[in-house]
Amino acid sequence: MKSYDSLVISSSGEGAEKPVNKFEQLSAKVESWKEKIAEYLGLSGKELTKAADEALVASAQETIAAADEDGVRTEQEIANIQEVVETVVVQGAMEEAGLEESSGGNPILELDHAKTSDDLVAAIGDLHAEGVTLPDGQEVAELAVGAIERAKWDHMVPLEGGPHGTNEGGWYQDPETGDRYYVKFYRNPDQGRVEFVANAVYEKLGIKAVRSEIVEIGGREAVASRQVPGARSSSPESQRGSQEVRDGFVADAYLANWDVIGLEYDNIVESDDGFYRIDNGGAMTFRARGGSKEFVQDDIPELHSMLEHGTAKQIFGGITESEIRVQAQALLNRLSPDDIEEIVTRSGLEGEQREKVLKGLLGRREFLAQLYTEGGDDLPEDSGDSDLGELNLSYGEDGEQSPRKGLSEVIADIRGREVERSGEVKMQPRAELICDSSHIENQRVDIVSKPDRDMIELSFKMRDRSAARAMVSGKTASGARLDGGEIVFRGESRSGATRKFEACKAMVFERDGVKVLVAPPETDVRAMLGVVKMEIPNDMPTDKAERIVARIMEEDFGVPDGLGEVSEADERAYKNSLYRWHHKIEEDLSPEEVEAADRLERMEVFPGYTAMVEPGKHREYVEKYGDGLRAIHGLHTGDARSIYRALTSGLMASSERYSRGMIREGMSTREDFKTGGADSVFTRIYDEERIQERIGSVIVFKPELFDRTDWYTYACDMFGSTDKSTFDGRETPDSMMQLIANSEPPSYASNEQMFRTGIGPQYIERIFVNLDERDSIIADLKAMGLEEFDGRPIEEVIVVREEDIKRKARQEQYEAEIAQKLAEKQKALLEKKQSIMNGGTDYTSDELLDVVGYGADSVNQFKAICDSAIAHGGKEKMTAEIINLLKSNKETLGKYVTYGAAENQDDTDFIEYAASTLGLDLSEIYEQALSVPPVPEMPDESELDGFPTPMMWPDSSEVEVDDGNFL
Amino acid sequence: MGEILRPFGRNRLGDNRTEDMEQNESHERLPEPVYYIESPDDESVLVGIDVSIYRNKSTTDAIISWYDTTHERTMTAAETQTNDKCFAFRRKEEEGGGTYYFEPMDLDLYNEHVKGKLIDGKDFKDHNDLIDAFLSTIE
């Protein structure tokens, strides 16, 4: 190797402009080298590149060696090493990207050896952390890694066994790591590149598929796919039963991966962590065996054809419209046009193939976007009943996802809608507009039609209340004057009377015919914090309304383009922020968490209300904590009417009900508005054991409910408080479920979750009712027209607890035992009575009372028994027992002795009969009774009946209470 | 009826509802349908409808539940006590502690403590009308 020591290389190119970024800085150094070498050695082209590479590598090696000579690296030496190695990496990246004419090798690989590899890795890491890119945007670090990865194939060892399919190839193994790869040498290398694209798209969509890379082995291009650990063949039954497999249908159709299943169901393998799609070379423009096929650019005919033919039909048949819609929405959310372009570029496809694949992928994406944002005329028909038990989510009024409309269109739509009904309850129609970037809570404006007041009401919450604080001065930022007022909810009771609820005071102003009400910035009604309401008269043209509202938002609230569509960047930022809020993450998100946040999708979770959903998150919870945990909600009356409302309209938060005019009665408390809980529907998380212990009607929600990200949770009843100190102490979804799963009932019975705005009926799994009410409830529901729900007969939805059935059985058994004991006692009584009447002496006064009985005729009964006993020689015994009886009733006896009569006539008759028949001296008996010490009284059972024995409790003097009536 | 042949407090034939029944749990309801609830430690309580007490014999705690006209409330009591018609419990410290007092709702309590805190509380002249109005919130 030539020595370049004689060359003096300046830190930046002579005469060059000062570099503005790292890439320019380092590439300037490369240029300096090349200029000097060209001048010194007269080289150009590839030779110049080669010489420059050698010089750069030598410089790096010498710098490293010099620094390590004494075993210690100074700071300056570290900086020098970083600079020279990064320069090599930048040069290598440019050659890798084709921006520099390669000499055949890559200088990066020269440093990928024992003495310099650590510094090479560090330099690549630094360049990655700094985000250094080439002028065309490709990341330097990624190119460097790609170059190193490809080079490793020179060391790969082919294994015996040969190809497993049509194409030349076989298994290779990395001798250093032991990793195995299946390598295919396609006759047409483009097919390998297309396979690369297919696998990269699957990965982007979160669908398990093999990871591929384009490699060069022995001068030939191939596609190498890393072995799936623990992979084994899977049966058609297991594939058909796998939700994971089915969840990839739309992606398979999108990629035109006709052979995704394989003729022998061998293109899907099962591993320990799920099902993987392998051998995806028959996608897009290629058939499985290498022939070409049309890759339609403006349609996805495979959405139909793959459900009608071959092995794909066997696996995906029965997939529902709703599932397809959900998958399509996920694809649109996760795979952007930029992503597609980047993947196709990375594949190395060029020329006509590149154009066909790129246009096809972009065009098909656009097709899905059109299909699911402009109505569903072309949706594939249901090919059978869904047997997966998955959620059938709908979106929009007619079950179709609505296009993103501006405010004027939303207002026009909602003005034309009739008041909604659930049973006899009227609800004013609602809609929402997703807009803004970061000023409005949840990027959402709620819109409710109020025909009774001839207006449309807009409502949103400002995250930052500084505009409201400034308004306290009496004027808005635009100069509009503020008056005092109230935010009032109005509605109609069942009887037709108007009800109203003043939620809080408000600052009120008007601009161009739109009335604006602003909740005070420090109101103590937490549900109203940040609330802004705008009232738009029904006779105002919709486009004018939109302009005025936009102007008010910008000029008075500092929200520019407040009604504008949310940009991708803003949506990403919002998802990130929401993910952190929901999972209570304070530090920066990890890469996995960023990815998870990016996968959030907006879905309709309650009619007219959307929220970000983490699709499939509930499966993680099931895997961690078991399948038994459910959110539940107690229906207090649980009659057919309330169940009907739940099954048709879902459950609504207080604030949602009031804003839609459902103020049925005035007797509800307003406490939940103060705590903030009014914005949410309350649930509790119970396991099956706890659910069985509940009484009354209980709605049990599907686990898919936990996919929502607009809920928070406490380990005990906090009334949904959003007070900061309380809120900071909330549980995370994971920790809450862990507490329930790892504890015994009744621990955490009072836990609570708050789901924003409402829970749609699609989340209802079943409703428990009392055993003796079920039949009548079902009959009433059917009479109201509800014979089935969610595709199931209503009898499968309205169920009873096993525990109730057992309780009833126990109760019946208990009653049977009691009846038997009663019968036995009755028989024994009769026998005892007969014995006494026959003069027997084996009885006590209590037993005598038992046989006498407690009817109205007890005195005559006694007389008859007594007469018979005396007639049969039992007088002495009878006398003794009667004396005992009288002594134990000394008060009554005393009154007779004193006044000649007892208070009660029956007692008087008894005493007189006993005295005369048995010859008793009542005065003497009374005196004897008085000389006996009193027996402590037994507590009155009726006072304790059903109530617990008082436990340790402070004296009332120790209890601080305001009201002295208590304890 | 006389007292000699009908002794007060004595177990009668057939009055065996607590005998011979295996119960690992009990559900009890406070006798009145609506209670005024007060706590010096918790401002969120006010009205309790259908107050129930659930006990599981495996633990000394009691689960107190009621409907407050908008939501179900549930709290775990470390101790409970009754006094005449009133009921009280001390909430478990793990749930924040606090003492809660329940008194049967009547017109005086309603007018003085409750009416002003309702959505649109109206006047009542009759106790039964008052109770019916609260019970209508649970439909």
Explain the overall architecture:
The complex is a heterodimer of chains A (967) and B (139). Chain A has 967 residues and is an alpha+beta fold. Chain A has five domains: 22-154; 157-371, Orthogonal Bundle (Transferase(Phosphotransferase), domain 1), CATH 1.10.510; 407-566, Yope Regulator, Chain: A (2-Layer Sandwich); 612-800, no CATH class; 828-942. Chain A has 37 helices and 30 strands. In chain A, strand 18 (601-606) and strand 19 (609-613) form a beta hairpin. With 139 residues, chain B is mainly beta. Chain B has a single domain (25-138), classed as PH-domain like, CATH 2.30.29. Helices cover 12% and strands 36% of the residues of chain B. Chain B has two helices and seven strands, in the order βββββββαα. In chain B, strands 2-3-4-5-6-7 form a six-stranded antiparallel barrel. In chain B, a hairpin with a 4-residue loop joins strand 4 and strand 5. The longest helix of chain B has 9 residues, at 127-135. The radius of gyration of chain B is 18 Å and the shape is globular. Mean pLDDT of chain B is 81; it is low at 8-22. The chains are: A alpha+beta (967), B mainly beta (139). At the A-B interface, strand 15, helix 24, helix 30, helix 31 and helix 32 of A face strand 1, strand 3, strand 4, strand 5 and strand 6 of B.
Supply database-style keywords:
heterodimer, A: 967 residues, alpha+beta, Transferase(Phosphotransferase), domain 1, Yope Regulator, Chain: A, seven-stranded antiparallel sheet, seven-stranded mixed sheet, 37 helices, 16% strand, elongated, disordered C terminus, B: 139 residues, mainly beta, PH-domain like, six-stranded antiparallel beta barrel, 2 helices, 7 strands, 12% helix
